[in-house]
Amino acid sequence: MVGDFCLSVQDQIDPTYGGEYIEGAVGQPTYINPILAPSNDVDSDITQLVYNGLLKYDNSGKLVSDLAESYDISDDKTQYTFHLKHGVTWHDDQPFTAADVLYTVNLISDPAYKSPCAPIGRE
Q1: String of b and e for 95-123 (b: at least 16 CB within 10 Å)?
Q2: Cα 93 to chain center, whole Å?
Q3: Taking a C-beta distance cutoff of 8 angstroms, is the pair 84, 101 a contact?
Q4: Which of 12, 37, 84, 104 is 20 to 30 A away from residue 55, measured at CA?
Q5: How far apart (Å, rounded) are the C-alpha atoms in residues 77 and 101?
């Protein structure tokens, strides 16, 4: 019960555009960077709110498109091909491209960057 009204599971509240969202977190952010965030729960929570990925999880835990329009997995499951959405831009209106994805993958794979997302056994 909140104030003088109560919500039931049958009630549906549709969000509107704009306004503000406040979320609490226990702990300190260290790196609000999705490449480094997995090593800190607070960073991970914040980056999930702020950044997009190629895919994301829906409310039922299923992977769905985010920046990728679709994807294909090779029969031997060693190659993943992502088809990026068209018309996506950065905050400065520059287009989001495959070069941006490649840059991020290369950073994650770079041992000097020490990303917790790096493939195991690569140093």
Answers
A1: ebeeeeeeebeebbeeeeeebebbeeeee
A2: 20
A3: yes
A4: 12
A5: 20
Band of residue 13 on the pLDDT scale cut at 50, 70, 90: low
Q: How confident is the model at residue 35 (pLDDT cuts 50, 70, 90)?
A: confident
Q: What is the pTM of this model?
A: 0.69
Q: What share of the chain is helix, strand, coil (3-state, %, to 5)?
A: 20, 15, 65
Under a CB-based contact definition with an 8 Å cutoff, are residues 43 and 29 in contact? yes
101 vs 34: CA distance, rounded Å: 13
Determine if residue 46 is left, alpha or beta; phi over 0 gives left, psi from -120 to 50 gives alpha, anything else beta: alpha
pLDDT tens by residue, 68-90: 999 999 999 999 999 999 999 99
Cβ atoms of 96 and 67 closer than 8 Å: yes
Beta strand pairing status for 55-57 and 63-65?
A: antiparallel
